Each structure stands twice: as C-alpha cells, then as structure tokens.
Amino acid sequence: MPPGAGQLALPIYASHDAIIKAVRHHQIVVVEAPTGSGKTTQLPQMLLDAGLAGDRMIGVTQPRRVAAVTVARRVAEERDCRVGDEVGYAIRFDEHASSKTRIKYMTDGTLLRESLEDTRLSAYSVIILDEAHERSLNTDLLFGILKRLTTHKHRRKSLKLLITSATLEAAKVSAYFSGCPIQSISGRQYDVSVSHSLENHDNDYYQAAIDTAMQVHLHEAPGDILMFLTGQGEITKAVRQLNEAVSSLPADCECDALLVMPLYAAMPPDMQARIFAPCPEGCRRLIVATNVAETSITVSGIVYVIDPGRVKQKSYSPQTGLDALTVVPISRVQAVQRAGRAGRTQPGKCFRLYTQQYFDRDMPNITVPEIQRTSLLSACLYLKSLSNDIDVISFDYLDPPQPEALEDALRQLFILDAIDGQGEVTPLGSQMARLPLDPCLARMLIAAANLGCLPEALIVAAMLSADSIFAENRGPEQIARMDAQQLVQAGGITAAGQQLVKKLMEDGPGDHILLLRLYRAWQETGCNGNWCQAAGLNTRGMRFARDVEGQLEAAIENSNSTFFERALGDGSIGRAKKRRKTSHSSEIELRQAILIGFASRLAHRMPTHNGYKTLGERSVLAQLHPVTANIAADEDGLLPEWVVYHELIATSKNLLRKVCPVDATWVSFITPKIANADVNRLRGGHREQPSQGGRDIETVSVSAAEQAAAAVVPR
Ligand code: ADP
Ligand code: MG
Predict the structure, then answer these.
(1) Best substitution site from 75, 298, 299 to test ligand 1's pocket, by max atoms within 8 Å of Cβ?
(2) How far apart are the C-alpha atoms of 28 and 22, rounded to whole Å?
(3) Residue nearest to atom 23 of ligand 1 (CA)
(4) 444/425 Cα distance (integer angstroms)
(5) Between these two residues, 581 and 611, which has the higher pLDDT value?
(6) How many helices (H) and strands (E) does the chain have?
(7) How far is CA 292 from the centre of its chain?
(8) What is catalyzed by this enzyme (predicted)?
(9) How many angstroms separate the CA atoms of 14 and 350, rounded?
(10) ipTM over 0.95
C-alpha cells in the first residue's frame, strides 16, 4: 500500500531517491535526521516498497520495548494490515511476527539473541539500527557484531545495514564503519524560543515544573504542553497534583480544559494509545513524560516544552557490584533535543528550569554511553557465545567499556561456570546465553533441572521477570503491616488477603520462595483476578508472569539441550508440573538452585548484627531492603548467616533487594570457586595455551557443586 499524503509530507520523503540510491550502492549507510522526520516509521516502508527487502525481512531495532510495539502498531495501521502480518514486532516474551512479516520491529536485545541462533542473520536483507544516538548497550554491541558480519572474510555481502539517528556523531560512526556514506536530512523545524530560569532548581525541580506547567496553561496561547519528569512515580504524582490544581481554578477562569496524560515505558498499552488520539475541541493536553518522549516517541501537536534538565539513569560500579538508578543532569545534546519537540508543527517555546549559564558552562556535553556505566555480565556472555574468536577485551567497540567492568563480568561468568579457567565459554555458558534471561536466572534454571525442581524455578524466574507483582509497588512486608484503616484506604486489599500474604511468609522464606508460593496459591484459585486484588497483587503482573513461565517452558522444551535432560527425560515439564505440588523439600532444592544461579551475589551476615557484607572484588556493607519479604531470624534475633540477592542498590544506604536465605553448608561448595576467580587468567593469554586441561577441571566442578548440594538435602 503506497504511503498516504500525511506520510508523504514527512521530511524523509524529500530525500527518498537519494536514500534509495545510497542503499543500493553501499552496504552500510548512516541516516541522520531530526526526530519526527519519519526515520522509524517511514524508512523501512520506503526500503520495502523499493524492493530492497528481496525475499527476506527488514529488521528494525529499538532500544526500548515500548517504542518497538507502538511503532509496529502504527506502521501496520498505515499499511492497513494486522500486526504480525506484513508488519510485526518481537520483544522479549512477546512476539507478533509470522512468515508473512516483511518489516519486523524489535528491541536491540532481541536481535542480539537472534544472532546467537543464526550468526549470519540470514532472515534479514536489511538491518536498521534505529535510535542509535541513544547508545544503548545492546545497540553498541550490535555495532561491533554487524561490523564483523559485513566486513570480515566470510561476510554477508548482500546484507544492508543502516544506522539511523537524530543527533548521533555521524562522522564518528561513519569512520567506525570504514567511512560509509552519511545521508543527512534536514527536518522541518520551526523556531523554538528558549527561556532559561533565573536560578537552578536542584532539589525543587519537580515543584518548579508543576508551577511552570500551570503558568503556561493559564497564560499562553493554545497548544499542547510536553513536560519531562524522571520516572513513573514522579509522573503519577504530578498528574494527580496537576488535576487537583486545575479543579481548584476559579469557575470564571477563561482558560481551556486541561487534559493531563502520563507517558512512560511501563504504561499499559491502552493508556499509551490515548497519547496518539486527537485532542478534543477546546482542550489543551499536558503530557507528562519520561525520557521516552525525548526521541523514541513523537507526540504531535506539542507547542510548549518544560525541561527540568534531569533524567533517571542507571549506573553500575564494577568494583562493588552496586547498582544505582539516580536522577542526573541531562546532557546538552539532550536539552537541544527536548527543546526541538516544541517546534514540529508551528513555532514553539521551551522553558528550561536551569540557567543559561549552567547550560553554557556546566552541563555535560554528551551522555555517557550505557556500555560505560552498566554491568557487562550478559554482554560478555553474548559476545563469547557468538564466536570463540571474539575477545571481549580487544573487541572493536565504538567506545570501549571500562576494563574493570569487563573484568567484573569475566569473574562473575567464571563463578557461574559459564566460562572456564582460560576464559572460554563452556557448553553450559552457551546454553545460558540462549535463554531469554539474565545469566544468573539462566544458571538457576539449569541447576534446578539437575536438582529436580525446574517447574518451581521457572515460576521464580517468571515472577522476577514481571515488572511489578505487588500492586502500587508495595512489598509483602508493607501489606502484612497494614492496619484496618490502611486496608480500607488501600481499596482492594482485604483482611483475608492480608492474612494470606502473612501466612505464606510466616516461616520467613525470603522473597523468591514467597513469590513461588503466591503464584501457586493464585493457580489454585484458577488464576482469579479478584483474588490478586484482595492479596494486594497486580493482576497484570501475575498474568505476565504466567505467560513468561509458559514461554520459558517452551524455550526449554524446544532447546533439546542436554542440560535439561533430567527435567525433560521423564516426560514434558508440563506433566511434571501436574504430578507434583510444591513440597517443602522442593523448596529446599529450589534454594540451592537459586544459590548456584546467584553465586556471584552472595552476602555474609556480620557476626553480631543484621548487616551483611557482600562477597566480591571489593565487598560492601549492606542492609536488607525494607520491602524484603520476611526472613526467619534465630532466637537471638539474628538473620541467616548467608543470603543471595537479586539486586544491590545504592541509595542513601546500600540495600539488598529480593533476597533468599541459603544454608552455610551449601555455600561452602561455592566459596572455593569464588576464591579461584583469578581475573588475570580469565582475561588474557588463553589463545596461546592449550585450553583443554583447564576446561575439564572447571566443568567437573560445576556438576560437583550441584551434586554435593543435592547430597546434603534429605529427600
Ligand atoms: P523519527 O523516527 O524520525 O523520529 P517517526 O517515524 O517516529 O520519526 O515519526 C514520524 C511521524 O509519524 C511523526 O509526525 C509522528 O508524530 C508520527 N507518528 C509516529 N508514531 C505514531 C503513532 N503511533 N500514532 C500517530 N502518529 C505517529
Ligand atoms: Mg525514531
């Protein structure tokens, strides 16, 4: 179906012939165009309609799940097809694509996983690495992987690669890809007048944003407002506060009605769709968004932008393993990008809640790429599994990661048995890489298959993969402690539901086992939604977990992997599930599997109080997170000596989140391996040495730890 008049008016069509010509004549092309030009929605269609897809697919990667889905829906609508037919998408745990699909939107992580199964990516004729300016970890890895695939000696000559970006340092990327051509498309941008505030709002940027929004609404001409905040919690609060402010305006106020809408990645799809619905007459929209509206999602009709100059950003310390999700200043490139959102359809205004001087002198110039501020555990495992001759240290990165981060990843991979003493990937490691889970959860599943508790471990992995199991992000302890009045206010949680949560964690099982028990209890109700509400659980989260459980199960059944032989050997996992209910002893086995999976995240209690010390290159002191499910203490009130944790978060204190108590006897099988993780051996020189000897020893130690752990449990 040819593009409609609305689409043809988008700036990218002005360069249609030049782009098609460049792609026909060159294997790699960089396309640089401002946001809203049509890169994401139109470029793939242009290539398809020009016959450049041949009989394969055009794959388009997005760093964000939400963008992959919304864009696929939009393009399917433009082409008048159902999602999953000509236009489809694939994100982790959710795929709508078929043999009919010609344009497939996907997350960069999904393409990375596909490349493990098919290193030549033979399903695709064209790959578009979209939103490359975001410099997400996975997009950066794909840069290197696709460079290899298009240039090394067994390269795929017919594969076309496009890198598209709004603000990328195009020259740098072109240089990285051996001087490939750059197609620059100028957008149709109206003037945006930028005003800076007279003071910097450090801690009060939130209130300053709210106040500015009301000022704009009351005093500026018609036009929608886009306001940036940093996260879901802040946005929900702002929406409530703004609605209250509007309803308390005097009745004779002459301004339009104000429709306040949130926009963030974890928002349910039906609410996201509202963002694109036309605004009712006589109404102004105020969209309160995270960074997702900076470049990935373009909302039309925006005339005013409010930019507090903040973004929530992940950072990771490879030395201590501490993760932090902190609000940090945006970069100058981002500030310009945000302002640009105001001038897409007419001249606009941008209100920056920081001073001109701060913008000119102190604001960071560019955003640090994710590869330089995140854990590289799964990245290293992918690279190593992709090909034995990839050396993660000397790999051709666009911007190399910190050496400490690579060393930390190698150390953890060794502890998880994913690489051997010479740093080469083990068969177990390549199986881990193929599961759509982080390496720790993948390792846990493999251990569980050996220990005979795979159905339980699948549930735990699925529950941990759902964003929010507890409604309103409460923790089980918070639910248990609510008094009668709070229960009424919570509107949904009933006294009986609260009792159930309390009872399931009475014996202090920690988070993982509690998640398992909650899921089992829900299953017994026939997966009843009211039951979830009564117990303070998020029905959507629980259903998501159920889907994930099914998908993981299918992935394992289809893998035909020897690592799951025991679990698959006596019939399908499904049948195994029917045969058994979770018993006390299977919970013990599950804890062992969790320990083996999270062996790189062990914490030891201090001798005389309930603080924990993590095991690692450099240990840190940490407390249990306040939302941790009850963990049994002894008569002296001391918590278990050993726990493993899912996350170690740096806030004002260091906190362990999602914690499972483990037995000291089992830990003693693991600690020698931790002591043995010699980074110098793992990182270098493995090429020169015959690798066989080392590998044997390590592979034996894997099963030895598992068997030994199994032996100490009374069955
Ligand atoms: P780019 O990738 O260059 O930023 P896009 O292809 O995302 O540009 O957007 C091009 C145009 O399509 C924009 O005007 C945008 O508003 C519109 N658009 C994109 N997604 C949707 C959607 N889901 N619904 C309605 N319009 C959309
Ligand atoms: Mg785009």
Answers:
(1) 298
(2) 9
(3) 74
(4) 17
(5) 611
(6) 29, 21
(7) 13
(8) ATP + H2O = ADP + phosphate + H(+)
(9) 28
(10) yes
